[in-house]
Each structure stands twice: as C-alpha cells, then as structure tokens.
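Structure, all two chains, one model.
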Amino acid sequence: MKRIAIDMDEVIADAQYRFSEWYERDFGIKIRKEQLRRQKIEDIINPEHKEAIKEYPRKEGFFKDLEVIEDSTEVIRELSKRFEIFITTAAMEFPFSFGHKLNWLNRHFPFISWKHIVFCGDKSIINADYLIDDNAYHFERFIGQGILFSAPHNAAINWPVRVNSWQEVKIYFDGK
Amino acid sequence: MKRIAIDMDEVIADAQYRFSEWYERDFGIKIRKEQLRRQKIEDIINPEHKEAIKEYPRKEGFFKDLEVIEDSTEVIRELSKRFEIFITTAAMEFPFSFGHKLNWLNRHFPFISWKHIVFCGDKSIINADYLIDDNAYHFERFIGQGILFSAPHNAAINWPVRVNSWQEVKIYFDGK
C-alpha cells in the first residue's frame, strides 16, 4: 500500500483564517475570506502590524479549533481506503500547538490513528511516496513525490505537481 | 551524510528509573538500580501493582527530568559531526510527555536542533539509514538498519544488530 503524508496548516487546517480573526480582534480591521484566498496576509495588512501577527502562532490558542479546509475530510477518508495516510506537521516550531493539533485531528479526522500522526521539523525525515504540502522547500530532500497545495504564499513557486483544492487531489490520485 | 534516528526512552532517557521512583513513592518498596538493569520492572514488583504502574507514563510529570542514559550525550555529540542525527520518539501515545521531552532534549542535547526532533507513533514513517531503538517491532517496516539497544524487556529478542551501551554504539559506527 503506498503512503501519502499530508501537512496540516493551509492544507487541511485553515490557519490563515485564524490570522485574520486575531488581526481583526487586535486591530479592528476585517479581512474578507475571498481576499485571503488570493493574497498573502502580509500583503493585505498594514505593514506596521507585520511583526505583531508573526508572533501569533507562538501564542496559546492559535491552533485551537481551526476551520477545516474544504473537502479535505471527505477526500482523505476516501484515500485512506487505498493508501496509508500519515499527517506530518512541522509542529516543533510551536510547542503550544501540540495539544490543539492532536485534539483537532481526533475531532475532524477520527479515522487517522495517533500512530499515523507525526510532529516534526525537517520533513526529509518522512518516508512516504507522496507529500502534500503548501511549502515547496519540504520537497527538496523528500524521497517521494511532492505535491504542492496551492496557497497565496506559494503562487509564484514553480513546482511541477500542484493542486488547487482537495477535489484536485482526488483527481490526481484517481489513476494511482 | 548518512542519518541516524535515535529513540528516547530506555535509549537516551531512563524512564525505567522513573517507574522505580514512583513505585517507591506509591508503595514504599525500593528497587535497586542494578536490579532494574537486569530485570523488567513488571517482573520485580508485586503483581498486584502492575496495573497501577502501567498508568504512570500517562500521568503529568512522568517524563520530566529523566536521568540521561550513560555516555549517550558524549557519543551522540561525536556522531553528530559525521552523521545527521534525528531524535524519533513514539510520543503520540503520551501527549503529556511533549513539553517535558522537548525541554529535556534542549537541556541535555542542545546541539540537536528542533528541526531534528520527531514525535511519532509508527516509526516506519522514519526515513533514516539507522534506527537505534529498544523496541525491535519498530524495525519490521523500517527502511534502514535497526540497531537494538539492550534493555531487560528485549533480552529475549533475537535481532542481528544489538548494542549494550553507548560505548558499543560508538564502536559500531567507528567503521561507518
């Protein structure tokens, strides 16, 4: 059975939206969801606020109850019948995220065992056939096929395998 | 540069000794260190206490300030000059352990970056050339060479590559 490793933030969990929620809470400025889909949050906000929002992921609660990226639960549930699914997230940078990430996965992806959850940093340590991630730098030393999950921050990145949604992930794996 | 993945409990961190400390605290019975090196703690204690001590790793504080396994710091520091070192621990089973494990690594192995720390469950996800572990079942689907680190609980296990101490690990890698 081939193995798919899947990143969390911006792939199955909507951390960008949390940035916008906290930004509105702290600075009173609302960012529309459609805008977040087209532009990096750093390019939308007042440049003076950049440093403040950079710290958000290090704060308690940032990763709590994030919204689920559209169609990810259904498509991954289907894929899990034909592939070994691992969740591989670079959580080590944000130790406050550990508990929230685990709770979130148990809640939204209960069909994924704790044995298949990996908190890491450098993803070249992952032994899988595919890695779905929004950060192409993880593919540089990855032993399998990197699949770039589109996000505004990676729009300018040139990578041969790119998917724009979980429906496109489904199609990519249809023939596999 | 070849890569060595290294387990934590009973390989670099002495969790068995913590069991004995808490056992003495709870039941007033002291277990000598030499005894712990020869026998599994389950075979030493009163059988009636088995269920109680099984729960210890799930309790807050169990993984805090564990003793360092002899020579591990020095040997790993030396190995890190010639090999990529990753710490790969099946921490997902004990979410309370996350913070303590990270603090412990930062304190005793400050030369290992957070990017090279992995909390996982099923270690077949680890892409490394070697895995030093006290549980041989992790080697079954591991893609590299498993190196069994001796502990009383694995004394009866038949595995071709076994080391009894960090000095033996050093010797094993001398020619590599």
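The radius of gyration of chain B is 16 Å.
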